[in-house]
Specification:
This protein is mainly alpha-helical and 142 residues long. 46% of the residues lie in helices and 10% in strands.
């Protein structure tokens, strides 16, 4: 946690704005009251998002490292989100398979009932047409 209670997730960093001022005055005074005939260059760096005790410009390698870390953190967040989405997709697929298994089991149960009923009807229908005998009139009954 950074000093003074600031959270890194809450603040957004903006790149520092640099202003360069050049003056060519021969009457301008330099450091310790000396006259300066060379152009003076003053560089001001302003940062938004808080003040710092020392306003030094950061080394480019430090800035690049911070950007890499921020990029890695963002990639990790994206990976976590993708992992959660993948887990949800797997959960949904398993639920769908369970529903299909229940439907198939119900259809199999109904098919078995239908098969038993057809077998029962077939048993009843077997003796039909076999009860003919021969009578005096020429009709045969069994």
């Amino acid at each position: 946690m950074p000093l003074f209670g600031r959270h890194s997730a809450e603040t957004t960093r903006t790149p520092p704005q640099t202003t360069t001022t050049t003056s060519h005055s021969s009457s301008s005074r330099g450091l310790f009251g000396k006259r300066s005939t060379t152009p003076e260059q003053v560089t001001t760096t302003s940062r938004s998002g808080g003040s710092r005790f020392f306003h030094r410009s950061e080394d480019p390698s430090i800035t690049a490292a911070r950007q890499r870390v921020a990029g890695a953190e963002a990639a990790e967040r994206d990976a976590d989100q993708a992992r959660f989405q993948a887990r949800a997709a797997v959960r949904n697929a398993r639920e769908q398979v369970k529903v299909l298994e229940k439907e198939a089991a119900e259809e199999a149960r109904l098919a078995k009932i239908k098969q038993n009923q057809a077998h029962s009807i077939s048993k009843r229908a077997k003796p039909l047409g076999r009860k003919w005998k021969t009578l005096a009139s020429g009709v045969v009954l069994y």
